[in-house]
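Fold this: Tetratricopeptide repeat protein
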Amino acid sequence: MKRFAALTLILAPLWLAGCVTPPPPPPVPVVEPTPTPEPLVYVEHLPSEVDAVLVYGARIRALPVGELARELAALAGDPTGPDTTLKRALVLSRMHGNGELARAIGLLDALGKSTDEATTPFKPLAAVLLAQFNERRKLEDQVERLGQQVKDEQRRADEANAKVEALKKIESTLPARPSAPASK
């Protein structure tokens, strides 16, 4: 029994130590992966024929009318193609003479209706320009009508003023009215 008591004294603390939960392990540091940068892809943009027409349009915007006439003459020597047609339409739209806008609209309309494969990349630009030029023509026609109405109204006002002045002259030449007899 002494042995048992001695053994119990030795084993009891060990047995009780087995009931104790061990402390939690220290937290493991989380290593965040470093993001790898996306590779840069450089795309070379080659200007298309449509881009060339847009650049041309921007260049001619500042030209005076005399320069536009020379530009139109120079375009007459270029080979006919959809890009040249668009350039002619742009030049004509900038000139402020009789019929130039209508000619530009005709060129764009023909380009839009063309079935030639070469015109395909130019058709969206031609459609946008055609819509803008048609709207501009409507506005110019409306301005012309309103200007004519203003002139007509001014002429009528001048005629009415002339009649009023003539009536004033006639009135000033009339003899004075006799006074009415006194009532009895």
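The two ends are 169 Å apart (CA to CA). The CA atoms of residues 174 and 180 lie 17 Å apart.
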